[in-house]
Amino acid sequence: MDLRKLKTLIDLVSDSNVTELEITEAEGKVRIVKGGSTHQAMHTTLAAVPVAPAAATLVASAPVTPLAATNPNEPAPAASATEVDGHVVKSPMVGTFYRSSSPDAPAYVEVGSQVKEGQTICIIEAMKILNEIEADKSGTVTQIVAQNGQAVEYGAPLFVIA
């Protein structure tokens, strides 16, 4: 499935009253579930499951039981002990984070590297597709948050640019 299509589907669920969306295509199956709490958590499951070609199906269901129960009387988890000073570049998708185009190639950026808006700073592999992630701001890389080869979620911090 095209990642632009996946992002469109996530936005569709986020901006609508639909709480669950499941689509099955030749490449695999995608299920997006919107949580019912005030924080509107979105859970995305991607599975490369071999299936017979079938038409896409849209499933709108009653409210879904949250994956993890939360107690509104408990204080929210504390923010990271270290405050981030600068612009955080976040992952636009779920996938595996890579600092370079291949294991033998040098990293796109290092701490201290000057980057320009639109410059490729890493790759995220999603569904066997390598997606170049570009800096959305010019500046100096002050921190590399994600680890090479680490799985990242949608919205996970990757870099800090000052």
Q: What do you see in this structure?
A:
Mean pLDDT is 77; it is low at 37-45 and 76-81. The chain starts with a helix and ends with a strand. The chain contains one helix and eleven strands. By secondary structure, it is mainly β. It is globular. 7% of the residues lie in helices and 34% in strands. The longest helix has 12 residues, at 3-14.
> What does the overall shape look like?
globular
Q: Please bin the fraction of helical residues.
A: under 10%
Number of strands: 11
Largest β-sheet summary: 4 strands, antiparallel
Q: Give the H and E element order.
A: HEEEEEEEEEEE
Instruction: Supply Rg.
Output: 18 Å
Question: Strand content of the residues, in percent?
Answer: 25-35%
Task: Report the total helices.
Answer: 1
Strand order of the largest sheet: 4-11-9-6
Q: So what's the oligomer here? A: single chain
Unreliable residue runs: 37-45, 76-81
For the terminal residues, how far apart are their CA atoms?
Answer: 35 Å
Q: What is the residue-mean pLDDT, rounded to a whole number?
A: 77
Q: What are the main properties of this structure?
A:
162 residues, mainly beta, 11 strands
Task: Give a quick precis of the structure.
The chain is mostly beta strands and 162 residues long.
Mind sketching the topology for me?
Blueprint (H helix, E strand, L loop, with lengths): L2 H12 L5 E6 L2 E7 L7 E6 L39 E4 L4 E4 L15 E2 L4 E7 L2 E6 L4 E6 L6 E2 L4 E5 L1
Antiparallel strand pairs: 1-2, 2-3, 4-11, 5-7, 5-10, 6-9, 7-8, 9-11
